[in-house]
Write a structure and sequence with these properties.
The chain is an alpha/beta fold and 231 residues long. The chain has helices spanning 12-23, 35-44, 62-73, 88-96, 109-130, 161-171, 180-186, 194-211; strands spanning 4-8, 28-32, 49-52, 79-83, 101-104, 135-138, 141-144, 149-152, 155-157, 178-179, 218-221, 225-228. The longest helix is centred in the middle third of the chain and has 22 residues, at 109-130. The protein is elongated, with a radius of gyration of 19 Å.
Length: 231
Amino acid sequence: MSRTIAIVEDDADQRDNYAHALKSQGYAVHKYSTRQAALQGFEKNLPDLAILDIMLGDEMDGGFDLCRDLRQRSPHMPIIFLTARDSDIDRVSGLRLDAWDYITKPVNLQFLAVRVSSLFRIASMLQTDAEQPSAFVLGDLELDQNTMSVSWKGRVLNLTLTEFWLIEALARHPGHVKTYEVLMQTTRQSYVEKNTINGYVRRIRKKFKEVDADFSMIQTVFGVGYRWKPD
């Protein structure tokens, strides 16, 4: 069965161009011009991947709102923002909503098709991981892949999906250094720099310290990356 892709784009020409490029790669494509039309479509069937413009008609942040709704329906769905808005603020906002990528227009259609294929491969790997035992306990740390939740000393932390992935990558192999390059791939995002990873780790540490002021399990390996403190 073909994987399905939803394109939510208010410009008809761009919407048709994206759809044609992806259909030529064997994907089934559903096209929507408004947030409301997309929501109605998602009520019937969720796509395997969504490509969202941010500005949808009169809704300046319609794509952001749609992303929030999709995340509630499917925590693991690959979501791409494809937009003319190229400010760092918008980019950060999109990635904090746990979009898997943020691409600015104009886009090379061949690049778009390759990026979609790459995200589907990542999604397949995640599905394989999900088939393994979901519960993981390491000392005071508990992770559950089914609910994408993390607990420390019995208290649940309020984490984003990306933060969960980073903690899981570190904790699965305590003592092993995860380089910046590895952690960049762990985020499932194409636009990630060292400072971005450092920012994620700062927020993660802060959330742990909110429940345990003495938390020190995430160690910095200066210039290389991070590791989970070994037992």
